[in-house]
Specification:
By secondary structure, this protein is an alpha/beta fold. It has one domain: Rossmann fold (3-Layer(aba) Sandwich), CATH 3.40.50.720. Helix content is about 45%, strand content about 15%. It has 14 helices and 13 strands. Strands 1, 2, 3, 4, 5, 6, 7 and 11 form an eight-stranded parallel β-sheet that branches. It is globular and about 55 Å long. The N terminus is likely disordered. The structure holds nicotinamide-adenine-dinucleotide. Nicotinamide-adenine-dinucleotide binds next to helix 7 and strand 8.
């Protein structure tokens, strides 16, 4: 909660603007204007040392300057990250600490990446509940209190075996069977509720498996990253999913661009606050065929583990037509372009290390 004195200051400010506090969705014009800063926003990225954070930070720093994008996490940054721009400690379970950061760094947007992903979440359910649910509560409440624009990613894992899987539409039954999925449905609903109840500028995209040359965080689609490293190193890969397991996927360049394009879309264009986005869908077998065009000697074995059960409950093909219609989402990378780019990226990374 905001301290009482701060509430009084906010209440006073609202009074000063009493001539223009016409409310809709419970939101005043003053509140709207204070979080519509898209020209040069100051941005906090939580959980920024995972797979998506560094790439997103780099992208946003090119758009809005290095100093305007503050990376944060609870782990120690590499020298390269520490020297690349502002980096601070932020535990999403510490609400007061988050308040201090928003105030001291004059934050306008939050990109909330902190989470325990699907496979890791199943190994430590109590921690996943805390980080994914309590952490999302903190960030949503924080964004409401300080009128911040909030981006929170959801996932194909927010669907379950009772959802239509081919294709999975934007609005359908959601009964996920992992704590990761349950926590993401919860975050989607809380964000939507805060939007309609308090006018929070909440934006959420449901991503498929994101593929990049950075280490993934323990999700069910991680095989589609690991296979590139093993293809170049040993030319031998053991896959933990069956060869015919079809899952939606996206290259990181499309992922970061989707987030930014969605964040700068004027509110009036958005018919909803949670959208499916995707780029392609493939099976391990199809990915191997595409990689063999570049590395013909690649050998693959299949040894499904507990992640197979998770994958079997997830969408095979994601319907993102609403994102395409409402705010012009369109992907650039299909499977062939993805494979070509990943082989180049991973080769460069291996040579550099
Ligand atoms: P990741 O697991 O690689 O990184 C998550 C980060 O959260 C880690 O650096 C971790 O240190 C941090 N974290 C954990 N506990 C924290 C705490 N208490 N306070 C602050 N930070 C904490 O995740 P990612 O792959 O970079 O994904 C980022 C977001 O995107 C997640 O919310 C994830 O659900 C979502 N997403 C990712 C994918 C994907 O394929 N990578 C797909 C769909 C959605």
């Amino acid at each position: 909660m905001l301290p009482r004195a701060a509430c009084r200051v906010l209440a006073g400010k609202l009074c000063q603007f009493s001539g223009r506090t016409a409310r809709y969705h419970g939101q005043s014009e003053w509140e709207q204007s204070s979080h519509s800063c898209t020209d040069n926003p100051r941005i906090l990225i939580t959980g920024s040392l995972g797979q998506l954070g560094p790439v997103m930070a780099h992208f946003l720093r090119e758009k809005y300057s290095v100093d305007n994008v503050i990376m944060s996490d609870i782990i120690k940054p590499t020298k390269e990250i520490a020297e690349s721009g502002p980096y601070i400690f932020a535990d999403v379970l510490d609400f007061k600490g988050l308040q201090r950061i928003v105030v001291m760094h004059r934050i306008d947007w939050i990109i909330h990446f902190s989470a325990l992903l699907s496979a890791i979440g199943e190994q430590n359910v109590p921690l996943a509940v805390r980080v994914n649910i309590e952490g999302a509560h903190n960030v949503i409440e924080l964004a409401k209190q300080y009128r911040l624009k909030l981006f929170l990613p959801s996932t194909i894992g927010a669907f379950g075996p009772e959802s239509p899987r081919n294709p999975t539409p934007n609005v359908t039954i959601q009964r996920p069977k992992t704590i990761y999925g349950v926590s993401k449905v919860h975050a989607e609903l809380m964000g939507e509720y805060y939007h309609y109840r308090f006018g929070l500028d909440f934006r959420c995209l449901r991503f498929p498996g994101v593929i990049s040359s950075d280490p993934p965080g323990g999700g069910t689609t991680d095989y589609a990253v690991a296979i590139f490293f093993e293809s170049l190193r040993e030319k031998l890969f053991e896959c933990y999913l069956r060869p015919d397991t079809r899952l939606p996927m996206m290259y990181i360049e499309d992922c970061k661009r989707a987030i930014w394009e969605y964040m700068v879309t004027p509110s009036e264009k958005l018919k909803r606050r949670v959208y499916n986005v995707t780029a392609m869908s493939f099976t391990p077998e199809e990915l191997v065929t595409a990689i063999r065009k570049h590395i013909p000697s690649l050998k693959i074995t299949y040894n499904p583990d507990s992640r197979q059960n998770i994958a079997d409950s997830w969408p095979c093909v994601f319907d993102d037509s609403e994102a395409r219609n409402d705010w012009g989402w369109s992907h650039n990378y299909d499977i062939n372009k993805l494979v070509e780019t990943m082989i180049r990226d991973v080769r460069n990374k291996m040579e550099a290390s």
